[in-house]
Amino acid sequence: MDWISPTDRKALTLRVPDRAEIADWLAGEWRLEIDRRRLFHLLPVGIGTGAILVFGAGVDIHWSLWGALLVLSAFLNRRARAFGASGAPSLFLLAVAFGCLAGQIELATTRTIILSGDATVRITARVLSHETDERGRARYYLKLLSTERPVLSRPPQIVRIVVSARHQPLRPGEIYRGLVRLGPPSGPVRPDGHDFAYRPYFEGLGAYGYGLGGPDPPPADAAEPDALSGRDAISRFIAALRGVVTRRIVEVIGGESGAVAAALVTGERAGIGPEVEDSLRGTGLAHVLAISGLHMALVAGTAMLLIRKGLVLLGGLSLVLPVKKLAALVALAVSTFYLILSGASVATERAYVMILIMLVAVLFDRQAITLRNLSLAALAILLVTPHAVLTPSFQMSFAATLALVGLSPLFHRETENQSRGPIGRLMRRVGLVLGATLVTALVAGLATAPYSAYHFQRLAPFGLLANLLTMPVFGLWIMPAALIGVFLMPFGLDGPVFWLMGLGLDFVLSIASFLNARFPDQAVGLMTPSGLVVLTAGLLILCLSASRLRWASLPILVLGLLLAPDRRPDPELVIYEDGRDFALLSADGLHYGRERPSRFVAEEWSRIYAPAISETAEGEGATAPAGTIPGLNDCETRLCHFQTSSGIRIAFARDYRLLGEACDTADIAFVARAARTRQCRSGAVLVTLRTLRQTGSLAIGRDMPGGAITVRRSIPERPQAWNAHRLAPWPEFWRKPTGENSANGATADDGNGQASGQPQ
What we know:
Residues 264-545 form the ComEC/Rec2-related protein domain. The chain is an alpha+beta fold. It folds into 5 domains: 36-109; 119-217; 244-393 and 465-523, no CATH class; 529-563, no CATH class; 573-723, no CATH class. The chain has 26 helices and 17 strands. It has a 6-stranded mixed beta sheet with strand order 11-10-9-8-16-17, covered by helices on one side. The chain has a 5-stranded mixed barrel with strand order 1-2-3-5-4.
């Protein structure tokens, strides 16, 4: 080292800054955050945190405690100002308090009645909407007017049924009369899994079912239904309009492309076949089916571009009129029409709020695409529908948008156009479009990957390639054609435009099918909530920070990746909430309790607990289980015994009279009947249809090798609002009415959970 001079050696020496220098640097970076008003973004983050505490953790804050939080927030803010410190903690705490308040108000004001159990019943209902699925079956959304044989004491307001029988489809506003089988939305298929009753509860949907035959013809003495209210009349008109547009698009384009095109315009996805959905999901393109921010932005952007270019071509008008603001007004009107035509789903409403705020910003000469506008959109959505914070669509939509808007300054660089001549400029523009598409797909894919892994336990490794190949076609061809075709429809000129739209969709679906056949998405197993929370915190810091403090997100993201894998041992026995499906988990996969388990349950369990088997089954074009549990061929009249891999003894029977023997001879007594007994005197764990109704699906195993038996339930002991129907009487116990008492909802329990009588 003698050849290095002392001066150079001193320059190469790394000096560790002292505490004062670190504090000064942090203070300077924090002042930059304050100067750029980035603390405003704490409001939607705090409100979302409060909503998660209410809907996810079941926190029930009393009004007095909420007031105490406000007082504490004000105190912290005052003390911070007195010492010249930041008021960020008090602001965040205040936002959390308001998030909790918004969540509790939504819970208190949501009055959806969910059917408490399966019921075969005759209904009279008003048709709200009608769709036709890929198998030609009719799908109705109905508003129940009355029920009979039996009379339900807790009839849901809105139900959805599928009718396979051939019949003349009923139009929105007409009356549906007939015999149907109804049931509540199912619960989670596993502990900590997605609760399928959550979204229907907040959307007002109280039951699913199917028609036992077609609708009955109206009786000769049927009274005229009550006149539609103004709101119902508007809903009927919108539903009829959506039906007309859907049928026209399907008629012109036809096939799977026609069904997808209808879904992009009117939101009616019933006609899309499972093969198409699987190929789009397997290649990371499923987001194109849900009308959300991408679709709304493309529609509004296309409308704004067409109006601006059209006014410019008119010459003198562009000199005297505010062209940009007029185009923004037209884009706002078009977006509103698209919201109505598409059915105004929750995801579409969120996208509309974001577009609304951005277009209003244009009207007031403000920049449209900013983090502040994104935070305003999040605030509006979380204050009105705070439950949305737990839905995959909300999380993935805002994660992608936040990453694109927040990280855009890192990728945006002004470059001088040195290309001379039209060919050079064209090549440069093509390169910019392809580069922007690549960066957009990469950033959005990385931002949404944790949420996809957490909610769906799958990732599409070739999703980036699929999006790169299809998104330019989708954005520059398909959606503009959809917009133009809809507005040409009243003049009968839509045919050629929709035909072109169909060609674009043929290309997209062929790419999805090709890639899915060779590079399908991969199962990634379970992900912990703590890992998702830490990764979300890292993403927020990375995208919302204006200073170099954003790089503090890197160790946080690494920590989130380390915490993400769920390292808990897999359960050894899983039982679905209906008691019909259960499975043993072993080294060679899943072994089911019956030869033909529910396809839905088998797919979910295979994806979660046996990814390797799931991948093999999907590669072969099937989802068959690994096998069945030996010795369960004749359990109708006798007690069957089997063991888990660690030696947990299970006794299974379908006859409730064998319950006592099952309790005495096993660690787990599983009786697939609604027995009244609640627990075993022997200390064994008792599982019946009644207990499953309270607990939901179960996962049974050991906390460690050779440790104690653990039973994890899907429904908490104190059910959430969307699971409160599990505490209500069971409709299937009710006998057919024979007199005045039974006609108004009297119940009769036969003790075994089966229907006591069938409606005629």
